[in-house]
């Protein structure tokens, strides 16, 4: 057996969702919304499966979708892209895998900022690379120049960068982007930028893709997700946007991962990207209201909630809430004793893992949020 997988534990998201199902708990753990999609895009998918092709799509994606992705980023982010810069993938995690496998060689070091999405480190190791963690510190979670400088070595090949940031809900500012860009250019590094939350922006926030910074267009592989944009996470339609050279290289890795994705879903996503700009702000407003509802309920129950500017997620500081248990112990007992599933933050890092924080998903209907808050209040009283 490959020791990488033999020794690997089940993803924390899967683990907590299975526990939620076992105990009949409210699932505030895994990051899927139960609202937010538009019926028009569902109708487009249904029409495409009946009237369109149901055979293999081109490996790099339907031309209509690749053109729609390029045009979408031109309108929203000012990026100068064409279909030749796009490779469609089976979700953004596959985009990350293709980007990492295409650029990382055995012995390369790859910087990741922790807490980090738990796919990064295994994918880097599968490519033969070594993940190097730069620990972001709560509650600000800022990227500090000194910490990044200390992590760079002659073996550094790439930086995997997630903005907006899961699990913290942080949207990094222009100065922090500039630090990463500066180090990437000076050290001739590739940046694999996981930007799947780019449209889940709350409180009027604006997003800047790192590829837009000077010197970055030719060295950035941008990973995007229709599942996040349209709240349809089960569709698993993602993409890579990069220079023609990097996009072609990543497409060669992609062809032997999934080869191609469902053509009807690709066609529906192309429709959504071309016609759905008006859906974005109402979606953001709905998520912001959900965040505020959950925050108010948790704070009324005595929990210390950290700010969230983006994504579906917020973090709760257990220690500041007067709870002595660590994150894993609290999560285990909360789902079994109080009927609520949350995600501990410690699995998001291997070295300097915070053990007093949990992540909750607020992309839920009001009744789910209220039930979850009520269960969290029970948990606080039962398992301090």
From TrEMBL:
<feature type="domain" description="Aminotransferase class I/classII large">
    <location>
        <begin position="26"/>
        <end position="375"/>
    </location>
</feature>
<dbReference type="InterPro" id="IPR051326">
    <property type="entry name" value="Kynurenine-oxoglutarate_AT"/>
</dbReference>
<dbReference type="InterPro" id="IPR004839">
    <property type="entry name" value="Aminotransferase_I/II_large"/>
</dbReference>
<keyword id="KW-0808">Transferase</keyword>
<dbReference type="GO" id="GO:0008483">
    <property type="term" value="F:transaminase activity"/>
</dbReference>
<dbReference type="Pfam" id="PF00155">
    <property type="entry name" value="Aminotran_1_2"/>
</dbReference>
<dbReference type="InterPro" id="IPR015424">
    <property type="entry name" value="PyrdxlP-dep_Trfase"/>
</dbReference>
<protein>
    <submittedName>
        <fullName>Aminotransferase</fullName>
    </submittedName>
</protein>
<keyword id="KW-0032">Aminotransferase</keyword>
<dbReference type="InterPro" id="IPR015421">
    <property type="entry name" value="PyrdxlP-dep_Trfase_major"/>
</dbReference>
<keyword id="KW-0663">Pyridoxal phosphate</keyword>
<dbReference type="InterPro" id="IPR015422">
    <property type="entry name" value="PyrdxlP-dep_Trfase_small"/>
</dbReference>
């Amino acid at each position: 057996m490959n020791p990488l997988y033999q020794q690997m534990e089940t993803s924390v998201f899967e683990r907590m969702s299975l526990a939620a199902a076992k105990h009949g708990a409210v699932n505030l753990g895994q990051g899927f919304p139960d609202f937010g999609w538009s019926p028009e895009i569902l109708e487009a998918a249904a029409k495409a499966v009946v009237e369109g092709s149901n055979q293999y799509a081109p490996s790099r994606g339907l031309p209509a979708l690749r053109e729609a992705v390029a045009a979408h980023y031109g309108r929203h982010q000012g990026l100068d892209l064409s279909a030749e810069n796009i490779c469609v993938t089976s979700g953004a995690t596959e985009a990350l895998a293709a980007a990492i496998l295409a650029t990382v060689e055995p012995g390369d070091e790859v910087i990741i900022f922790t807490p980090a999405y738990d796919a990064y480190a295994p994918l880097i190791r599968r490519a033969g690379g070594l993940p190097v963690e730069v620990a972001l510190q709560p509650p600000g979670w800022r990227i500090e120049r000194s910490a990044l400088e200390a992590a760079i070595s002659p073996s550094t090949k790439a930086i995997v960068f997630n903005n907006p940031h899961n699990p913290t809900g942080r949207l990094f500012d222009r100065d922090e982007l500039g630090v990463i860009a500066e180090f990437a250019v000076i050290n001739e590094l590739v940046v694999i930028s996981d930007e799947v939350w780019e449209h889940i922006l709350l409180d009027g926030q604006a997003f800047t893709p790192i590829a837009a910074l000077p010197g970055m267009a030719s060295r950035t592989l941008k990973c995007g997700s229709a599942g996040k944009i349209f709240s349809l996470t089960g569709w698993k339609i993602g993409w890579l946007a990069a220079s023609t050279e990097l996009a072609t290289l990543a497409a060669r890795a992609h062809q032997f991962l999934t080869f191609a994705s469902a053509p009807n879903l690709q066609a529906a996503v192309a429709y959504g990207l071309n016609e759905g700009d008006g859906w974005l702000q109402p979606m953001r407003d709905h998520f912001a209201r959900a965040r505020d509802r959950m925050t108010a309920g948790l704070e009324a129950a005595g929990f210390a909630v950290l700010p969230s500017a983006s994504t579906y997620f917020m973090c709760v500081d257990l220690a500041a809430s007067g709870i002595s248990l660590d994150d894993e112990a609290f999560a285990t007992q909360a789902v079994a004793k109080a009927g609520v599933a949350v995600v501990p933050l410690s699995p998001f890092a291997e070295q300097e893992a915070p053990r007093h924080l949990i992540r909750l998903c607020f992309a839920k209907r009001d009744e789910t949020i209220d039930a979850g808050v009520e269960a969290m209040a029970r948990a606080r009283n039962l398992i301090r």
